[in-house]
Amino acid sequence: MNPNIEVITPVLWGVNSFYVKAGWTKELLPIPQPPDQLLTGSKDVSLTDNGIMVLHKESELYPTLKKFVPRIMEHSDEELVTSLQKISSKSNSDNYEKLYKSVLEWEIKRRGIYYKTHQTKVNTSFFETLIKMFN
Predict the structure, then answer these.
(1) pTM confidence score
(2) What is residue 36's DSSP assignment?
(3) Angle in degrees, CA 49, 54, 58, rounded to 5
């Protein structure tokens, strides 16, 4: 594996995005995303076309996200959606809740890409609900 890529989990990597732009990480290519599909907080994270979440090491949130995101990744699909619905229903969110909401959204989006590219069997009605939430 490329020494410029830190593998946190098989589907969560840490990399300096400048290395990607410079071409030093052949395993990762910059993924153009239409403006309407950009992730909230995309300066902190991006997704590959095969469902890997890439945390940007130059982000000031990197140390926090490196510890926090793997915990969210352990949630079931149902837990993710339930948590997102709860946090979205709050009228005034503090910065911690906003970060939590963003991480939930990132993980749901990542799973959608992963399920599509790996032809993983999922509850299709549930998966369609996830897709509708973000389209």
Answers:
(1) 0.78
(2) G
(3) 140
pLDDT tens digits along 91-101: 898 999 999 99
Q: Which amino acid is at 96?
A: Y
pLDDT of residue 115: 85
For residues 106 and 91, give the distance between their C-alpha atoms in angstroms, rounded to a whole number.
Answer: 21
Rounded CA gap, 70 and 11, in Å? 9
Instruction: Compute the Cα dihedral for 49, 105, 76, 14 and give only its sign.
Output: positive
Give the number of other CB atoms < 10 A from CB of residue 34: 6
CB 80 within 8 A of CB 108: yes
Alpha carbons 91 and 76: distance in angstroms, whole number = 25
pLDDT in tens, 21-77: 777 777 776 555 544 444 444 688 888 888 889 998 998 999 999 999 999 999 999
